[in-house]
Amino acid sequence: MVTSPAISPVSPLRQRMQQDMLMRGLGVHTQHDYVRHVRRFAAFLGQSPDVATADDLRRYQLFQHENGVSPSTINGAVSALRFLFEVTLKRRDLSRALVITRYQRQLPDVLSVEEAGRLLQAAPGIKYKAALGVAYGAGLRVSEVAHLKIDDIDSARMLIRVEQGKGRKDRNAMLSPQLLELLRLWWREGKRTGVMLPHGWLFPGRWRTDPISSRQLHRAVQEAAEVAGIRKKVSPHTLRHSFATHLLEQDVDIRVIQVLLGHSKLETTALYTKVSTRTIQAVASPLDRLMALMEDKPPPA
């Protein structure tokens, strides 16, 4: 007789925390991340987190640093545990024991326009070419691309509706004529092969009732980069970075780019000024001005 494996029951603490996150409108991905971080802390502690002390939190953070855990992961754990202790357990005293790690944010890898073209051409099929075209042509996050529905493409207003993006925010993204044509090619192919449902997902997964997974899009980008001979470390987010950088190099106002990307803070968008080659090239070196003065020539504008 075959018996099904026992399913571990959800603890009352975890259930209460999930309810607290739901009531405060935290996104699904954030909820999963918070639960994962709390589970790791509980495993380190060897018992339920509701009996933790300030010293336990200190030991856990030291353990993370000593074992080379990345600053972003440490800070993610801080956010999760602060929610647990402040909101669910009403223990603000413990929340104050958690320390955020300061670190220098790395500049993102960016493709040149020519590299972006080669990558899209090398995409494995029209479905992935269209999906990666949305990431580059509209600057969407990989999760936003994956969860687009057919009805989100507004060809009359030339907009893409992004529902419940990062931070559970809705916004409009740009829809260029070339991207619309690419999406129409995919739509016709999807209808012909029967993988697209009316009002369903724009990019269905293995089952047409499910959206494509972020993992599938990551795999498609890496496969395309290999075929295109691109040696840079490339992911779907690289296409979003490239979208923003290339717009900046076309002299699009940074505040417009901020809106298109869905950034809450202008400082986040300003990061792209550091990787824009045109921005760097447009600056006249003080050495050029000095040499012009020494040679009694007019300095460069």
TrEMBL record:
InterPro entries: CB (IPR044068), DNA_brk_join_enz (IPR011010), Integrase-like_cat_sf (IPR013762), Integrase_catalytic (IPR002104), Integrase_recombinase_N (IPR010998), Integrase_SAM-like_N (IPR004107), Tyrosine_recombinase_XerCD (IPR050090). Residues 106-285 form the Tyr recombinase domain. GO terms for biological process: DNA integration; DNA recombination. GO terms for molecular function: DNA binding. Transmembrane segments: none annotated. Residues 8-89 form the Core-binding (CB) domain. Pfam families: Phage_int_SAM_4, Phage_integrase. Keywords: DNA integration, DNA recombination, DNA-binding. It comes from the Bacteria. Belongs to the 'phage' integrase family. This is Integrase.
